[in-house]
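job 3f2a | input accepted
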Amino acid sequence: MVKSTDENTPDWEGRCRRCGRCCFEKIDFEGVIYYTGVPCQHLDTKTNLCRVYTERDSRRPGCVRLTRENVAKGFLPADCPYVSELDNYPAPIMPGACDRDAP
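job 3f2a | predicted structure (103 res):
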């Protein structure tokens, strides 16, 4: 269960550690999300900040806003503060990690 912090408030936005990992391309294969090593074109990889943050929806239609509903879908890293309080969070596979079903 996530604390009752409203989305798009300083408390909600303040959870972000500015690691930039959520801004890397992802692939959904058979319901499992895999991260790639390809950053979004708008991610400044030196500061890990979005160059077009306030207008990201219009500049990059595929950018997903971090709402309570969206963060539960399993596209943020397991150690992300936005998902730290979610039970049974389906964390994505990160680059270099072994596949979940591998022997």
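job 3f2a | The chain has a mean pLDDT of 86.
job 3f2a | closed
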